Amino acid sequence: MSVLGYVIMGFKHKFDLEKQVTFYMSYHSDPTNKTLHLLCIWPILLSAIFLLCTTAPFVDVAQALHPYVVANAALVGVLIYVLWYIVLDPYAGTLAAALIVSMYVWSNVVIADAVAATGESPWRLALGIHVTAWIIQFIGHGVFEKRAPALLDAWDQAIITAPLFVLLEVLWVFGYRREMQARIEAQVAVNVATFKRERAQRLKASKTA
């Protein structure tokens, strides 16, 4: 297979919802860590969108759309998220996409109102929320999960798809796609058990070395 073929196969794998969620949940199996991510992932996304909404527009839009739609960096990101999510899961993805578009519109309105009232946007608050939420997530991995996040192995999950996966966990409570949930949870249990066994073996080997 050519290099291009491997690239295409790898990218296609990114849109296999069941495999992607299984991989994600294998790194988020501890209840406390899962709760921390549930509380932090969407604020991270909202604050990121807010910060990107403070960037200068690269093209003018119709005045009737202002301040709801601004052609800033956030718009590019939102379009990527919307398309990615809907391809991954047409139903949960559409719900997540609607939430993201709402956050984008809300951010543009808040920024426009703040600039009109004070002359500047409240970007410092958004940055503080963003950084704090990331720190809390790393604490969740280090203290409770005791496993580093797979940022290098799954960059797309850290940057793009984690909010959708968290939303799926919420929807599962209401019975969404129960069969897929059962398959994922069974495989996650196997993956976590394998990781713990291999970690114990490495620890034992290091003590006897």
Automatic annotation (TrEMBL):
GO BP of this protein: sphingoid catabolic process
Membrane spanning stretches: 35-53, 65-86, 92-111, 123-143, 155-174
Q: Which InterPro entries match?
A: Mpo1-like
- One Gene Ontology term, aspect cellular component: membrane
- Keyword field: Membrane, Transmembrane, Transmembrane helix
Tell me which PANTHER family the record gives: 2-HYDROXY-PALMITIC ACID DIOXYGENASE MPO1, DUF962 DOMAIN PROTEIN (AFU_ORTHOLOGUE AFUA_8G05310)
Q: What is this protein called?
A: DUF962 domain-containing protein
Q: Which organism is it from?
A: Aphanomyces astaci (Crayfish plague agent)
